[in-house]
């Protein structure tokens, strides 16, 4: 195994990468909620500059005609939207550096835990794909389908980094008892994760419907938007009820049958994220879709999936150790002599 310093260095870096990715998911949701996605109509530059302008006077007088010829007829400089999108891009670049550092610090695991290195490498490659996909989102003028794929890929990347982080510390799970958990815990955790992803996808469909209504409605009439949402909104709304019950049972199961501090902390976090998602969802319904409730709703849903995944992986590694160290008694041969 790598030295304790090497392990801690990797854990800190990988944990920082996970935090950075979740921050990027939140900021990306804010960009979309504020309509700042096209605040920079080109990529990787912004209005043709590496550091975007702070006023319209810094742009050519015919800049709208220039971007209209490129397919962006509605381009109008807005300093708030431009810098919101630009800061989102800077955070994306910073995420690329953190995952590069995670990959570098995973190299010492190649012999003892090669899976850690390969997971870090996969995450690094997918971050590059994510950057390219972000450029395609801009080039497509925020095509709704590509935005959804962009969001789902972020979930995959953070899941890979979480998997590398959990695997790098799996020696710590040797003494973790998992046989006390209910037999239904593992299949129901998988059901909860699959249903949560489905709920996340339905949420993005609702988000796309809101975007379409916003483009064709007066901003002041937000209280009428919910009445015009498609059927998927109702399904998304009531599908949350069984998810809350299921996640509540999972949390109680861990708290009642495990004394491992990390698992208990993750379970409490899962409960907090679940209740936070429900609370914000109810506020969206009652307060007529306030602008910043939507990115928070998506962010908490992402945190729920990541927390579930971490719990499942820890228990999986613990079960591996448990089965690997299981003591078996060889059969005793009894011979009878006459």
Overview of this structure, please?
With 338 residues, the protein is mostly helical. It has 2 domains: 1-168, no CATH class; 174-320, Four Helix Bundle (Hemerythrin (Met), subunit A), CATH 1.20.120. It contains 9 helices and no strands. The chain has helices at residues 4-33, 63-69, 79-106, 114-139, 144-168, 185-216, 231-257, 261-286, 293-324. Helix 6 runs antiparallel to helix 9 (293-324). The longest helix is centred in the middle third of the chain and has 32 residues, at 185-216. The chain is flat and about 70 Å long. Mean pLDDT is 84; it is low at 325-338.
SS class: mainly alpha
Shape: flat
The number of distinct helices, counting runs of at least 4 residues, comes to 9
Relative helix content: 55-70%
Give a quick summary of the entry.
This protein is mostly helical. Helices cover 69% and strands 0% of the residues. It folds into two domains: 1-168, no CATH class; 174-320, Four Helix Bundle (Hemerythrin (Met), subunit A) (Up-down Bundle), CATH 1.20.120.
Please write out the topology.
Layout: H1 4-33, H2 63-69, H3 79-106, H4 114-139, H5 144-168, H6 185-216, H7 231-257, H8 261-286, H9 293-324
Helix pairs in contact: 1-3, 1-5, 1-9, 3-4, 4-5, 5-9, 6-7, 6-9, 7-8, 8-9
């Amino acid at each position: 195994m790598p030295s304790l310093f090497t392990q801690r260095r990797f854990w800190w870096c990988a944990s920082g990468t996970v935090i950075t990715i979740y921050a990027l998911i939140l900021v990306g949701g804010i960009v979309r909620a504020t309509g700042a996605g096209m605040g920079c109509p080109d990529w990787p530059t912004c209005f043709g500059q590496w550091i975007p302008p702070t006023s319209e006077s810094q742009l050519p007088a015919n800049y709208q005609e220039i971007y209209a010829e490129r397919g962006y007829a509605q381009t109008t400089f807005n300093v708030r939207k431009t810098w919101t999108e630009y800061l989102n891009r800077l955070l994306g670049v910073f995420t690329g550096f953190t995952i590069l550092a995670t990959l570098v610090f995973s190299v010492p695991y190649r012999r003892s835990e090669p899976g850690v290195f390969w997971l870090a490498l996969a995450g690094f490659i997918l971050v590059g794909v994510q950057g390219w996909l972000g450029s395609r989102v801009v080039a497509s003028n925020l095509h709704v389908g590509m935005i959804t794929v962009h969001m789902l890929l972020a979930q995959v990347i953070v899941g890979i980094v979480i998997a590398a982080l959990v695997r790098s510390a799996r020696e710590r799970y040797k003494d973790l008892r998992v046989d006390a958990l209910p037999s239904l815990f593992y299949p129901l955790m998988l059901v909860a994760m699959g249903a949560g992803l489905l709920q996340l996808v339905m949420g993005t469909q609702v988000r796309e419907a809101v975007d379409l209504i916003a483009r064709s409605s007066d901003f002041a009439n937000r209280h009428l938007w919910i009445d015009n949402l498609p059927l998927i909104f109702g399904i998304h709304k009531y599908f949350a009820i069984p998810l809350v019950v299921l996640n509540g049972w999972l949390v109680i199961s861990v708290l009642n049958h495990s004394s491992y501090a990390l698992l208990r902390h993750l379970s409490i976090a899962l409960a907090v994220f679940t209740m936070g998602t429900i609370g914000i969802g109810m506020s969206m319904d009652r307060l007529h879709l306030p602008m910043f409730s939507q990115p928070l709703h998506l962010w908490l849903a992402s945190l729920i999936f990541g927390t579930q995944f971490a719990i499942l992986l820890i228990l999986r590694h613990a079960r591996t150790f448990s089965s690997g160290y299981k003591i078996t008694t060889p059969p005793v041969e009894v011979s009878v002599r006459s």
